[in-house]
Amino acid sequence: MQDVQHHGSNFQHNISGCLEAAIGEHGLAPSAYAAWLSRIEPHVAALKDDYRENRLALLRIVEDTADIDAAEAALARLSVGAKTLVFFGTGGSSLGGQTLAQIAGWKIPGVATEGQKSRPRTRFYDNLDGETLAGVLNTLDLAETRFIVTSKSGGTAETLAQTIATLSAVKAAGLEAQIPKLFLGITEPEKPGKANGLRTLFAEFNIPMLEHHTGIGGRFSCLTNVGMMPAIARGLDIRAIRAGAKSVVDTLQASKSAEDFTPAVGAAMAVALSKEKGIKTLVMMPYADRLGRLAAWFVQLWAESLGKGGEGTSPIGALGPLDQHSQLQLFMDGPREHYLTIIRVASQGVGPKIDPGLAKLACADMLGGHTIGDIVAAQAHAVPEALARAGRPVRTIDLAKLDEKTLGALLMHFMIETILAGRLLGLDPFDQPAVELAKVLTKERLAKGA
């Protein structure tokens, strides 16, 4: 089998399972693969120019430190006397932060370190639900809770609704005088002639604000203070996160061709499979609990960036080995329209060891003497092999270690991969024009019912 591996900054990226040599007629022929790499070449060159001429803030944020210093100081002030930190924000204002927080154990019961246990608890409320919010506000000790509210435009209706309801609850609890110490906002700087509801609201209560980067939108904001605040809250090394992301930008600058740059290879492959082989669905399937929210973050990144003008492919988030028991049947034997990305974290020798005697008693002799990590590693390697034998395109990304630097590199890899895929498709990966209509119609319905 032809082995096409690309050693990224902190991981190995292998697309062999997408090529004709591995999966026969359902894979890309060498000539088609070469043609699509050639097509993406000018877009890689343009991306290098974007960096050199400082046209794309995402590529330069990895070199900044002032915003990190400000975020650390703001969170330190906010955390005084706090037992719980609540993050309000939706979509890109939350998913990146969740992704970072999860590698420190957020939303995985029982794995918090001693250092994390001494920190305030971290909660995210990114979906608007009246019953949920009522329960939250009725059960939290508001005097010991701090609220971090993120909206780039300052006009996100869901986030404003959560914030206003919470302010009212805090006032009703007799804590109005404490409001400047209980809240922190992240939104764009004030612009003459442009309304910013969150900034206006928080100014009325003297609530401190951090500036949301004006050149980096929500789903690309995970490396800004939007994503860094939850990472700080969980005790992560945020400078290492940015260093990992910077290593991908450095690789871009050093690359001699598109084939040298793994995000370009990934983008070319995704678009080529769509156009040449009818692939309609991309599956992001990490084999690690701590990467579960990465899959959810990727779904928004890919869908909202590329689903325009009839273009795009539908992303699905999955989690291994869990979803081997729910979705894999479809991926293996359903319509030939799925392309899988399997992310594997080295796990051999990790976790409890299975007692051979008990394994034999349970008619599972093969498990005896192995650790839980051994079993997951075997599954994470068997599934791509099975997919390839079934003629289903699959790429693998192997992480020697899941830490801040590696996650920073992964996040930057997928963001650049998405940008390059968009440019290869001839569309703007940074806007989201179609969702605006739903916002307009929502406002109209609320106005009619007022």
At a glance:
This protein has 450 residues and is of the alpha/beta class. The protein contains 19 helices and 11 strands.
Walkthrough of the structure:
This protein is α/β, with parallel strands linked by helices. It has helices spanning 20-23, 30-52, 57-60, 66-79, 95-102, 114-117, 130-139, 157-172, 179-182, 197-204, 225-233, 238-254, 262-277, 292-306, 328-333, 356-361, 372-389, 404-424, 435-449, and strands at residues 5-7, 11-14, 84-88, 121-125, 145-150, 183-187, 209-211, 281-287, 314-317, 338-345, 394-399. The strands form two sheets. The chain has a six-stranded mixed sheet with strand order 1-2-11-10-8-9, with helices on both faces. The N and C termini lie far apart (65 Å). The mean pLDDT is 96.
How are the secondary structure elements laid out?
Blueprint: E1 5-7, E2 11-14, H1 20-23, H2 30-52, H3 57-60, H4 66-79, E3 84-88, H5 95-102, H6 114-117, E4 121-125, H7 130-139, E5 145-150, H8 157-172, H9 179-182, E6 183-187, H10 197-204, E7 209-211, H11 225-233, H12 238-254, H13 262-277, E8 281-287, H14 292-306, E9 314-317, H15 328-333, E10 338-345, H16 356-361, H17 372-389, E11 394-399, H18 404-424, H19 435-449
Parallel strand pairs: 3-4, 3-5, 5-6, 6-7, 8-9, 8-10, 10-11
Antiparallel strand pairs: 1-2, 2-11
Helix pairs in contact: 2-13, 2-18, 4-11, 5-11, 5-14, 12-18, 13-18, 14-18
